[in-house]
Design a protein that fits this description.
6 helices; 3-stranded parallel beta sheet; alpha/beta
Amino acid sequence: MIINLNSVKSEEDTLRLLQEVFDFRYPPDAKVYSIPNWDAFDDWMWGLKEDSFVVRETGAKKLVLIIEESKSFQENFPKEYGFLMETLESTKLRYEQEQQDFIFDYILS
């Protein structure tokens, strides 16, 4: 999965873009159009394997998020960038430590 942060103009843009990529649904049959805030993103990443329609419907065993234009996002939105990186890293470590049959990773470019 690829996400390009170059076009992000606000916190809302970022959360909407993340929702488009992960397609979180809770309950499972609901359609969510935007993630309401960073806490909700963190919660949904905690349940990535169950709450992401993309992961659940494809039966993916590995998900790699490629983040393009991360440098400009970091410069323009340092607080949001920090929270995004913290959430992605904690999600990655959680799945590594629990040794589940699912792997999450991310790459900055």
